[in-house]
User: Which sequence fits this backbone?
């Protein structure tokens, strides 16, 4: 067998949550073949192993079927969004899609998970992500540094609140770039937030 490359696949961000259509599952099965290893990750992406020389062709085929393809490993993951149960407009579906387009797949020192919740009920658990965005009626809050693993698990802390939609992507980009530039080796994002201090990151975001 030739060189194998990993690929992360997810359905589009949509009302109802992470929904695959039967056709999309058929495409995945047909393209990868009967012996493929297909892993469901904890961050709502399927990891597939595909022949490296067919990576681009497979990516195009998946995208034609409405699937989204992202890098695996040390990168920002696709946005882990809620199910938008309060309605696409009230819960900010288009905002979530725009955020995902802007921030998913950026190479980072460690994998970064970014959560989005369309209301303060936060059923997508945004405070357990490296970065969490919560829609609060007409504005948005951003939280940073959630750590869901280990005995020292902790919730993300409020970085900035009352944001208009247009402020979100510039701030998220700034935080991610700051982490890329100043992380010590493979420093976890939550440790980076602690080391930098919330106050300094607040200044960066303001
Ligand atoms: S976070 Fe709010 S809008 Fe989104 S699925 Fe949960 S309850 Fe519904």
Assistant:
């Amino acid at each position: 067998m030739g060189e194998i490359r990993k690929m992360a696949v997810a359905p589009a961000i949509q009302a109802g949550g992470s929904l695959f259509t039967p056709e999309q599952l058929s495409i995945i099965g047909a393209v990868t073949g009967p012996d493929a290893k297909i892993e469901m990750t904890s961050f709502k992406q399927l990891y597939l192993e595909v022949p490296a020389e067919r990576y681009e062709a497979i990516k195009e085929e998946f995208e034609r079927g409405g699937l989204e393809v992202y890098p695996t490993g040390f990168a920002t993951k696709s946005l882990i969004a809620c199910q938008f149960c309060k309605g696409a407009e009230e819960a900010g579906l288009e905002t979530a899609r725009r955020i995902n387009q802007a921030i998913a797949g950026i190479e980072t020192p460690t994998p970064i998970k970014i959560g989005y919740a369309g209301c303060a009920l936060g059923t997508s658990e945004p405070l357990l992500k490296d970065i969490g965005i919560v829609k609060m009626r007409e504005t948005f809050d951003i939280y940073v540094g959630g750590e869901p693993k280990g005995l020292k698990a902790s919730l993300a802390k409020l970085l900035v609140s009352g944001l208009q939609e247009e402020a979100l992507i510039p701030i998220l980009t700034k935080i991610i770039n700051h982490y890329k530039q100043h992380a010590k080796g493979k420093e976890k994002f939550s440790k980076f937030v602690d080391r930098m201090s919330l106050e300094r990151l607040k200044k960066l975001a303001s």
About this structure: The chain has seven helices and nine strands.
